[in-house]
Structures are given as structure tokens and as C-alpha cells.
Amino acid sequence: MVGSGEHLLSEKTDDPEARDYDEALILFMSGLKLGRRGDLEAAAPKIACAFLLNGRSISFIPKIPDNPADQKKKDKVLDLELLLALTSATAETETETESYACSVLRIITGQFLGQNPEHGQALIASAMTAIERLLEIILNDPSIENPDNIILGGCLTRANLFFYRSSCHMAMGNRKRAIKDLSKCLKVDEFYTKAREARGYLWASYNLKDDQTIHGEFTRVASEFHPDNRGMEGVYAWLAITTLNDPSLGSVEDAKIHFNKCLRATIRKDELYGPTQRRIDELPSCVQKAYTLFQQHPHHGRNRQRNLNEMIQGMRGISVDEYEEGMRKNKYICVKCGANRRPDGKMVMQCTRCKSVSYCSTKCQKADWKSHKSFCDTMKNKS
Description:
The protein is an all-alpha fold. It is built from 16 helices and 4 strands. A hairpin with a 7-residue loop joins β3 and β4. The N and C termini lie far apart (58 Å).
């Protein structure tokens, strides 16, 4: 098992990625235990399979300190000395599985030490050579990709290799090749959603695609990811950003719905991967960017003075069912005062020109017209 006193992630959520992570973590811990005992040939395939199944399962540290307290980390953390020993032990083997594991171990080395100023580029180059070797092997024997294959648990696939090669390209500063490999990954497996997510982030972060393309990409990711997926906060943040940037993608209220889902995903991520709540400066930059855009938007309304931390704290303790029910009831609110009903209790009214914002009364609509006019004209022309 993972360890005494430790709970499996899959006990907290039915997200398929959680099951993969738990399985990968068990494999990693088993391989690490074998490696510490000196059975390097048996340890290498387990650690390699764990990495391919879910790379987050690998806990790595370049060097374990010599003091007795830190020596306990050996039972849970892979260090460079052991990683190199595992690689050397499988480098000259005639066993296919161990040979493939050796190449994956080189990829792991590049992934974790690629930022090393002295040896980083050489390690990344070695990782990319290993990936090229494995891709060539799969080209000559496609059966290796069969999920039922015993070779590294069926995790040795072109999609996985293209995905990890894209991160090597990013580490070398080549965004264009990274995106090309993510596209290759999706061509092999169009439902390799974490590759679609990664490509969407690159498009969005470096302004490489228009808002409609980025919005469409993240809309698909949102539909394919489980609601508890750790990437959902960023996905919803970008949906909010693109909606605010391009009114044709939805109204301000639609953007607010995306952003509120982003905050819910932020809370859920902390619940699953805690144990502590992240500080605001620890959140993805896209979450903070979405918040800033709302603060600057003329139709942000009554929440303009609430800081991001207050908004997140205000949503804690609300169940998912309560939250979604509230979202349905409050989808349309007055952009001027925040009311979700007219004084007579009826639903708020949409602006008849742009049909993108709502008001609770003629008084609020007239008071908001000066700031709303340019937005209204834009939306009217797009309809």
C-alpha cells in the first residue's frame, strides 16, 4: 500500500486521474523499496511505469541530506544517486522491458534535472534521444501500445512520448516544437486531454491564437475533464478571460459563471491536494488575470471592492449542489446593483439592444448607460 496513515486520492474523488495517480504511486513506492534493497533490475520497470502512468507520482530530490532525520526520506523519495544506478543497471540488459525502462529513466532524469544550469541541456538532449529511440521501436512494433501489453503496463505509447517530448522542447525554450508535439499527441489520441490543455495554455499565455480558438479549446477540455481534475481552475479562468475579451463568446454573466466555477475548482483542488490552502500568489497566473479583468470591467458591479481572497473564502463551506443551484437561480442579475429580481419580484430584464446584460429596473439601466453604451454597440453589431 501507499503507506500507513496515508489515504488514497481515489477515496476522495471518482476522478479517473485520481485512480491513475494512486496506481502510479503504489508502483513507485514498490519500485523505490526494491531499489533501496538493491534489486535494481526489478525496480526500474516499476518506476518507469509509474512515471508514464502519472508523472506526479514520482517524488524526486537531487541529493538526500546526510543527517539522520532526512535519511527517512529514502523510503519515499527518489534521489539522483539511485536514479543513475537504476539507469546503469538496465543500460546493457538484453531484456526488452528493462531496456525500455532504461530509456524512460533517462526521460525522468531530463524532466527533473533539465533546469540544472550545468548539465540541464545535456540531460534534456539525452531524454529526447531516449524518446526518439522508443518512438522508433513502437513504429516497428505497434503492438507495444496495446493496453493489455505487459511491457511497462501498456503505458509506453506514442501519445505519452510526444507529450513528454513537448515538455523537453519547452525546457529548451522552443514553444513552436512543443506545440507541434502536443498536436502530434492529439493526432494519435484526440482524447489525450492533458495535451489539449497544455496546448491551450501555450496558445493563451503567448497570444498565439485568437480568443475564439482558445475558448473553443478550453470548452472541449472542460467537457472532457472530470470536475475534480486539478487543471479545471485554469480551464475556467481562461474561459472567463476569453469571454470578457470577446463579447461574441458570451455575456458578462457567462464570464462570471466561468469565473465562479474557477473559484470552486480552486477550493476543490485545495481540498484534494492540500492539506493547506494556497495563498493568492500561489494560484495560477490566469486565475489572477481573470480576477483583474473583472475588476477593470465596467459591468463588474457590486463585487468590485471584494478582493480575490474574500471571494474564495466566501465560497468555502458551500456544497457543490448548493453552489450549482445558486448559479442557476442567479445566472441573470442586474449588472448595476447585483439584484437578481425586479422590485416586483419578477425576473430581471435583458437589454433589448445587445441582449447580453440584465437590469432590475429602468433606473439602473439609465444609470449604467454611459459605461454600457460602447459594449452594447459592439454586441449589437455582432448579432
